[in-house]
Fold this sequence. Notes:
Blueprint: E1 3-8, H1 24-40, H2 44-47, E2 53-54, E3 57-64, E4 73-83, E5 87-96, E6 99-109, E7 111-112, H3 123-130
Antiparallel strand pairs: 1-4, 2-7, 3-6, 4-5, 5-6
Amino acid sequence: MKFQKKVRVPFSRVDAAGIVFFAHYFTVAHDAYEEFLRELGYPWEVWFENGSWLAPLRHVECDYFKPLVGGKEYTLEISVAKIGNTSYEMRYVYLDGTEPQAETRHVHAFMDRNTKKKMPIPDDIRGKLEKYCS
């Protein structure tokens, strides 16, 4: 299963050539990630303000196939690429119709909020993520 979101590139995200500045691909994906978490049943106050764990980014990367242009609407297709013991990798594909324009991958690692040491992905979260594995 994949989560899809329509995204329109705002003027504030483009450079002088009218294309998305490279770093904003991550911003757009992270904004969509929050919506994906709500879809899983984890609103802001549960995911980001719980008392026991954190799931910060550990790694991000992007492959750019064609530039995204300002003002245009794209489909952002979101899935879980991989689930490990303590981390998982999200995959974001920017589509123009059915044609990929770019792909970002974000690895989130779970850690204990107090000790800041890695910890296993909680079972309830793992189960919900597995439904979106591609």
